[in-house]
Amino acid sequence: MISDEKQLEPINDTLNPSAPQFGMPWWMILGIITLSVPLFLLPGCKILGALLCPSTLGFGWWLCKDDPKEPQLILHDFLLPSEFDPGK
After folding, report:
1. In whole angstroms, what separates CA 10 from the centre of its chain?
2. CA 67, 33, 18: angle at the middle one, nearest 5?
3. pLDDT score for 15
4. What residues contact residue 60 under an 8 Å CB cut-off, 6+ apart?
5. What is the Cα–Cα distance from 54 to 19, expressed in whole angstroms?
6. 36 touches 56 (CB < 8 A)
7. Cα four-point dihedral sign 57, 61, 62, 68
8. Can you give the pLDDT at residue 70?
9. Contact 73, 33 (CB under 8 A)
10. DSSP secondary-structure letter at 15?
11. Model pLDDT for residues 26-58, shown as the tens digit of each residue
12. Which end of the chain is more exposed for a tag (fewer CB within 10 A), N or C?
């Protein structure tokens, strides 16, 4: 029997999670669809609503294909004060 100190720890993906199946997290896909459907139902906006969903999903997939947290990093970068300098 192996002692508790010598047992190997199970490996999990908490530090480096795998990319989502569709390139974006589920909440981003749901948000895009939630915004596109009411826009599609407004009179005079059918073309814009029909083009918004696939183009946004395609752009989101392209943005997140290498790093699933890229949109959050971009948002945090925009929220930093302009005088912030990480090199100081």
Report:
1. 27
2. 25
3. 67
4. 23, 24, 28, 29, 32, 71
5. 20
6. yes
7. positive
8. 78
9. no
10. S
11. 777 888 888 888 888 888 888 888 888 888 888
12. N
Using N-to-C axis directions, what is the helix angle for 70-79 and 46-64, rounded to 10°?
Answer: 100
Q: Which two tokens stand for residue 69?
A: 């947290």
3-state secondary structure of 47: helix
Structure tokens at 85: 């300098």
Q: Which two tokens stand for residue 3?
A: 């002692």
- What pLDDT sits at residue 17? 64
Residue with tokens 């059918």: 46
pLDDT bucket at 18, cuts 50 / 70 / 90: low
Structure tokens at 59: 């752009």
Contacts of 38 (CB under 8 A, 6+ apart): 49
Q: Looking up tokens 């599609």, which residue turns up?
A: 40
One-letter amino acid of 40: F
Q: What is the mean pLDDT of the segment spanning 2-13?
A: 70
